[in-house]
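Weekly modeling sync, notes
Attendees: S.R. (lead), two postdocs, one rotation student

Agenda item 3: backlog of single-chain predictions. S.R. asked that every request posted to the team notebook include the full sequence so nobody has to chase files. The rotation student volunteered to paste the first one in as an example of the format we agreed on. Action items at the bottom.

Example entry:
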Amino acid sequence: MNLEFFGDGPALVIESEQRILIVADLHFGIEADLAAHGLHFRSRSPDRLEHLLRTVDAADPDILILLGDIKHSIPLLTRQEYYEMPGILDAIRSRIPLMVFPGNHDIGIERYLLATELQPRDGAILDGVGYLHGHMYPSPTLAGHLIVVGHHHPLFLLKDDVGCSLQTPAYLRAGLDTERLGMDTSRGNTPPTRVLFMPSFNEIAGYDILQIIKNPFSPLSRCMRKDEAEIILADGTYIGPVSSLHKDESD
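Predicted structure, as returned to the notebook:
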């Protein structure tokens, strides 16, 4: 299994028997939600779609996996999403075969997807890797595999003493406590189960990795082994263990 990081996405390619491009958390229609809170922007959906299609062309995959939260509004569709989603999905599927693992923002997305595109919300294994959005408990069948998820929008934030800061999308990788997740690993020699939290493709969405560690908000983030957690930047640069970022109180 080979992993290839596309920092300009951010996106990830996992290649084994198939070359699979993975993208998480597009959040098309987020501008309508911002407008409801007094922040008015034109729709950036055309730009976001063009960015996605450029990433597909650059990666040259066999298939595209969207790890949920394709749309943004909950619990209903907004006018923006109603008019934009059919054209967005048609443009994607005209370029590449598509699989979708729906997220918590994807209420009603089924009406726009083909039966072959819609995947189980609790995840499935493709080419030896588990995939799901990440907001719910994973299927027990994913035990013993790398599980790639979205939902958490990890950002790497780093500040120096002067106040200068780096803020960039990043991946968070850790082992999982499968017993707490209700996964049965007692039969045979089940390999360790690991999770890879993907950064959001949407340029607005992001959440501090340290807050994901300190205040987990999903079954997978609550059950990850924090002492094993590692940070990888969107371009594949390895930063190191999360524990190395904690401020040394003796300084």
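Discussion: group reviewed the output briefly. The CA atoms of residues 69 and 125 lie 19 Å apart.
Action items: rotation student to repeat for the remaining queue; S.R. to check formatting next week.
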